[in-house]
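BUG: 3D viewer hangs when loading the predicted structure for this chain

Environment: internal workstation, default settings.
Expected: structure renders.
Actual: progress bar stalls at 90%.

Input used:
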Amino acid sequence: MPFDQRHLLGIETLRPDEITSVLDLAEDYVALNRQSDKHADALTGLTQINMFFENSTRTQASFELAGKRLGADVMNMSVAASSVKKGETLIDTAMTLNAMHPDLLVVRHPHSGAVDLLAQKVNCAVLNAGDGRHEHPTQALLDALTIRRAKGRLHRLNIAICGDIAHSRVARSNLLLLGKMENRLRLIGPPTLMPSGISDFGVEVYDNMRDGLADVDVVMMLRLQKERMDGGFIPSEREYFHRYGLDADKLSHAKPDAIVMHPGPMNRGVEIDGTLADDINRSVIQDQVEMGVAVRMAAMDLLARNLRAHRAGAA
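Structure tokens produced before the viewer hung:
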């Protein structure tokens, strides 16, 4: 099971065979998580610290559950009440963490590159749970597993990513991963929410949903990142839904068996019609949540194997 990474900081550094390794191992954990006894011992004796500088429900709960099911000692650091709020620098935080001898550090941070900086300063495996507009690697991996299970493959699919591309680390990580796996990618959204230089990614760009969704296999909607916007990127939420929100009419232009995805949390009636989000025949949004726990278990398992091998070699 090839996986040579010391950290999981982004999709950019992963090879296609490493991506496949994570997904294949995650399949085993999907099966485990559906059993009455959901526990394994891959992280027994290891300490996992979850450090979220941004609010999160799904990702933090998913990482916590993943660590506990693998036997780790899991601690959630409340950054809102921590020394960081009192002016401690990220480097000082890293030194403090080092003194606690953690084995796995899960970090979400509002600034791009902050997780990479921490990884350079600590003596443990670091997993990026989202940093600014940069990357969210485990979200892309869980999306990939969801697509592979629904479609039976993860290559040569027509995939549309729709909405707030400019502010989305989910979009960036998915573009990298799905591109590595030889898919045809389309971005759909208003020009104000498209990043500059997007043509360098080798994708098709549309500002009309009906044109962009023609004959696609996968429709991946994105959350409007209003907390990252500092101006009038959209005229109104009502107008945004009219033009770019996913409803049955727009979806009818995709393939009849196209699946609908959303990383959550959803703004119903803004990014996606609520009835469509709950349609068990088209929507795989709840599957994405389930796959998230399994993918994070797989990623931490593989990193822990490398960590133990590295320490054994250094001893």
